Amino acid sequence: MVFYRKLSIRSQLLFIALLITAVLLFIIMTTYVQMSSIISSNNEQYTKAMSAQIKETVHANRDVIDRLMTNIAYNQDVQNFLIEENKVQVYGYSKRMNSLLINMTTLKEGILDIVIHGENGRSYDLFGGKRWTAPFTDRLSPKDSIHYFGLQHFEGAYQVENSLLVGMKIKSFQSGDRFTSVIGTLFFVIDPKALIGSFGSNSKQYAMQSYLVDRDNKIFSSNDPNEVGSVLNAMITSEVRPGKSGSVELNGTKYIVQTEDLPEINSAIISIMPEDELLRDISTIRRLELIILMIGAVMMFILFKLVISNILNPLKKLMAFINNIKRGDLDTLKNRIHLQGYAEITVMSNGLNNMLDEVDTLTRQLLETNAMLYEAELEKRKSELSFLRSQINPHFLYNTLEMVKGMAAVKGAHEIREIAKALGQIFRYSIKGGDTVSLKTEMGIVESYIQIQQIRFGDRFQVHYAIAEDTWMCQIPKMILQPLVENAVFHGLELKEDQGNLTVRSVLNERQELVITVEDDGLGIAPGRLRQVQCALNQYENTERDPEEPQISSIGLANVNNRIKLTYGHPYGLSIDSTYGEGTQIQLLMPTRGKEHGQI
Q1: Which of 318-332, 415-429, 446-460, 540-554 comes out lowest in average pLDDT?
Q2: Following DSSP, what letter does each residue of 28-73 receive, concatenated?
Q3: 435-506-474 Cα angle (round to 5)
Q4: Counting runs of H as helices and runs of E as strands, what totals does the chain give?
Q5: What percent of the residues of the chain are helix, what percent strand, and what percent coil, each to the nearest 5?
Q6: Strands (E), 263-385
Q7: What is the pTM assigned to this prediction?
Q8: pLDDT digit string (tens) for 482-515?
Q9: In the sheet where 209-214 sits, what is the strand order?
Q10: Which of 134, 192, 203, 596 is deepest in the core (most CB within 10 A)?
Q11: What is the pLDDT of residues 104-117, one digit of tens each?
Q12: Contact 502, 463 (CB under 8 A)
């Protein structure tokens, strides 16, 4: 997505056009494949249903034929005709057998002839078929049951050109030496329709060719009567396994072939459908979709040209104009741009021209006032900082001298010497050096100040330091902590009757900012007064204040808060929290600065 956003508008539009075309082609191809799959599946289901119907018909008709042949083979007159030696009795048996066979032909339509051959050379037929069936007697084994020989051509002996021949061995069922021995052969000559019915009557409407073939691929039934008796191309049956469907290419035409075995009659059902015919309708739909896609592509190209003419070309001219301005070409600033395109382009060019006019006016005004405003702001900042820093020394000096005066009245010269020494260190520190020092240096002055106060107060309070090692070299403004410690001593611990505690700690927070905390367990601040002090600290940035707003009584706190905010800005400075009667906590927040960032 980032790469796409970096492309030019022309490239993005071209990418979108190609993407839309690819998606449409994908949809067309996916739809075609899906529809082809559905149609092929429907055709396969139809073929299976038709094959199942043919199987059911063949099975029913075969059962009828098998029962008729069994009834004839085991009929008493037939048995006697084949084994009787007396010619007079044989003649009588033949008359009764003739009636039997004629009756059998009426029970099943399509029986063209019934032929009986005896093992003793005796034979009988209804319509002269014994000379055609005689060669098949040796092709039947005594162990065989009813056998279907397939389609045979009897040279016009019957009303159909090709007939189906079925045969079985006749065995004796009379007791004696000849029991179960073969005494003859029975043949039925059958019209194929009597076995399979109206084969493939509905497949023609789907351009499907259906065949019923024997083991030699000879067609004995088809939805095209002209093909009955011919031999089906062996490639069709060799390429597709029985019970499966597949594709076969013959003479440059691709066919979908499906086969189903009919082991009961030693034959198979073959269904052949030209793939082009099967998919003809969806091929027409695909061509129509491609034509629509081409028309859409032409329309998209025309729209693309319009966008280029009305958007991209004006934008290109605008970008060239802006680049001339960025290179500092002052003559370009005097010129104005006029763009032709969509209404938004015209509005944009007019807006740019108006902006350039305003830039000319504002530039002149800015050049006249910029230097003066900059110098005035610098002088203001310097004056505020110098004033705030100058407030601390007289205040501290006054308090210290008062303390020295009191001590001189009650104690000896030793304490005065220690106080003077510490006081000298503080004075020298306050007037020498830069504006910022390390936290370690500042803590040395805090300790000198604490030494003076502990001489004065004795064991009235204990001091605890918790300075993190990684904060010692952080740079802070000079004399920033002493006012906070002084505030804690004079306003928190001085009036406390029992011993108090003063804690100074420093850490780096999760944003690597310096946090210094001065905490005492002195008298604390009353809730009302605490809210006034917190409000005053938070309202530092308001330059215009109401004269009736509360001011911070401690000049030390005000000085430190103002110095921090002047130096580092918002949100740095002081925050104060106190519980009346329990103590006060003052927290100072500053950015972390090492030695290399020591200048304010």
Answers
A1: 540-554
A2: HHHHHHHHHHHHHHHHHHHHHHHHHHHHHHHHHHHHHHHHHHHHHH
A3: 35
A4: 17, 17
A5: 55, 20, 25
A6: 267-274
A7: 0.41
A8: 889 999 998 888 888 888 999 999 999 999 999 9
A9: 219-222, 209-214, 267-274, 253-262, 245-250
A10: 192
A11: 888 888 888 899 99
A12: yes
CA atoms of 410 and 110, how far apart (whole Å)? 152
Q: What is the DSSP string of 484-517?
A: HHHHHIIIIITT-SS-EEEEEEEEE-TT-EEEEE
The DSSP bridge partners found for residue 257 are 246, 272
Query: pLDDT higher for 388 or 569?
Result: 569
State how far the alpha carbon of 488 is from the alpha carbons of 42, 203, 440, 479, 540, in Å.
96, 109, 20, 15, 22
More confident residue, 566 or 51: 566
Alpha carbon of 588 to those of 516, 563, 564, 574: distances in Å? 5, 12, 9, 5
Residue type, 547: P
Of 34-38, 216-220, 242-246, the least confident: 242-246
How far, in Å, are 51, 207, 233, 593 from residue 257 at the CA level?
A: 13, 13, 12, 87
Contact indicator for 217, 232 with CB cutoff of 8 Å: yes
d(CA 228, CA 153): 11
Top-confidence range, 128-137, 200-209, 392-401, 505-514: 505-514
- 569 phi and psi angles, rounded to 5 deg: 85, -175
Query: Backbone phi, then psi, for 587, in 5-degree steps?
Result: -120, 130
Give the rounded distance of the alpha carbon of 209 from its chain centre. Answer: 47
Q: pLDDT for 225-264, tens place per residue? A: 676 667 776 666 666 666 566 777 766 677 777 777 776 6
- Gyration radius from the chain CA atoms: 59
Residue found under tokens 């917190």: 534
